[in-house]
Amino acid sequence: MRNYTTGDFKNATLAIRGSGDVARRSDPDDALEWRVWVEEAFDCGWHNDASMAKDGWTPMQEQSDLSMDALEAAYEAAEEVPEYSRAANPGDTLIRLCGDRASVWVTRDGYCTEGVRILRPAPRPLTEAEKIQEILNDLSGAGFMVDPVLLSRHLAEHGVRVVSSDGE
User: What is the span of the domain harbouring residue 116?
Assistant: First the structure.
């Protein structure tokens, strides 16, 4: 791993560290110009070039086709979060516009504030009915009759628990 110096950060606009830590230069005229997100601590803070070098960050130049117009279009196309609940699902990718800035992140807890939209929903687990439907589709696609005992075992192997109407 290369050790970077304060000078290496002078012209950088982005920095990464480890698996998930990211930083962006927010205001080059500020003494603490780096906005840092530390994934493991689920926290953010402000740093300068010297502390970025000391803490093992890797400086990068932003190379992206993203524009504010593209982010605004993505926001407009994103799914609105129901106003009454202010909730998304954990793992959803969210987007918020704030003046001349846009924020995009993956939520851990699903809580949203006003103006946040769901850019990309997280994969949802199948419902029990969907699991059963998939299993039955697989079996009917095979083109053969299934013994009820074998069907019951197959369902159980896929995590489906059948309960009779009397609770047994």
Answer: 68-120
